[in-house]
Amino acid sequence: MANESVTPEWDIFFQTNPAPPDINLEETRITDFLTGSSSTDNPRQPMCLVTSGGTTVPLEVNTVRFVDNFSAGTRGSASAEYFLEAGYKVIFLHREKSLLPYARHLDTYQLMQDMSITESGNIVISGDYGRLSSVIEKRKKYSRSFLQIKFTSLSSYLWLLKLATILLSEYSQKSNISCLLYLAAAVSDFYVPASQLPVHKIQSSQGPPSVQLSLVPKMLRPLVSQWAKKCLVVSFKLETDPDILLSKSKAALDKYGHDLVIGNILETRKKEVVFMYKDGSHEKVEISDKEITDGVEIEVKIIQKLLKLHHYQTV
Question: Which domains does the chain show, CATH number per domain?
């Protein structure tokens, strides 16, 4: 008896969890952004996809309650800035209401407190906002090289990740422009399949709900082997136990076959990370206490090192 072909688990996920309703609009936006590169000052700009923020796992179709992932989007938003300033075009796939490049520098509450309106109707800002003009100038300067795509749920993230990766990879191969995937989003390992979600809000009067979570298919496998051809792929591994960080990072590279894992420990993630390479070698990237005091972010050094690696692989 002939063996029947087995449908990959990631294909089953996309067959059973509907795409976000605006996915066709987002496809048009990404395509226009990529093909618009010929009209910029540098049509040979390298391109990257940066993912950022956590993913929600809804517990109802009409979602009131959900399980969330810990992430404010700090690393992704900071890294996107440094990619832009290094000359990249950036597709920024981010959790809705998470931190955004450049806007992350502003304390909006304090800014509103310091605003007043004159009798002539002009808005006046008091206080020390010396950096405000610099932030605004940079955001405007790189606006043509930057595209924001929002997600909230795990399902919408994975659909948009697949779409953006395929479009970026196809355009990269067609135009011979190098691309990089920087997967900094905190993606849930568990979810409730759409077929098991109640339509309406779970009622507390019925007692505590019994929630059965399923494992999310490991999307790095099809991303590396099918979606992201000829792109440099960088993933992150966050752990709380330093003793397993290196082994888990190396295991991810062996399993999925991508280019680099950046490992970090929850408590020290803003001060040091570890670059784990395919050959098993690794190196620490860190900033000193003085650099932290001076406002230096570790993402500066992460991106500097990645730029050298990306250039090496594309020359």
Answer: 24-108+130-314 (3.40.50.10300)
Whether the Cβ atoms of residue 220 and residue 228 lie closer than 8 Å to each other? no
Q: What is the pLDDT of residue 38?
A: 47
CA 233 to CA 179: how far, in whole Å?
A: 9
**Tens of pLDDT, residues 34-57:** 988 544 556 678 999 999 999 998
* Whether the Cβ atoms of residue 151 and residue 98 lie closer than 8 Å to each other: no
Yes or no: say if 257 and 241 are a contact pair by the CB < 8 Å rule: no
Residue 72 has pLDDT above 70, yes or no: yes
Gap between the Cα atoms of 186 and 262, Å rounded: 13
Per-residue pLDDT reduced to its tens digit, 226-256: 999 889 999 999 999 999 999 999 999 999 9
